[in-house]
Amino acid sequence: YNFFISFLLGSSFRTHCTIGAFSDCTGLTSVTIPSSVMSMGGGDHSHDGSGIFVSCSNLTSVTFLDGVTFIEDFAFYDCSNLNSVTIPNSVTEIKDSAFYYCRNLKSVSILDSVTLMDDTIFEDCTSLTELTVSESNETYKSYENCIYTKDGKTFVMAAQGLASVKFLEGVESIHSRAFRQCRNLTNVTIP
Asked: With 60 as the cut, is the pLDDT of residue 26 above it?
């Protein structure tokens, strides 16, 4: 069923969803995050239910309305059927392992306002083959489903499901975990 957070929690719900609030809600299939929510509560341990939607195994879609500014650590950890996410313009930070182990996540679009992304946000998302950043984003850019710093000098991360990666010309450094858990990767071309 579709779940609209502000409807359930009422008018007093204004700034953030707390740690583990919807952990293991296996009947949850879609979620709309209203504009009144600024932060999607997370935690610093992935296996203790600290992310807000940890192990919601039937969650297939998440709609963020403009307003959310942070997607916290492990927010959607192990949402194994989540397949597509669009990060809205209001989000400025996506924290450590926010979408870790979302094995059916195929497509992610990151819009203009994101200025800080941990390089493990899509770790072990083995079906992720479409990873794009808006051309208007001032911090990051994408090229062939990989993310780079805007100047193209630092390779930040690859979409985890890619079999082949071709670097942009002029790359000078690679983030330490840029290819971690890229289990399908068989070919890397560095110019």
From this structure: yes
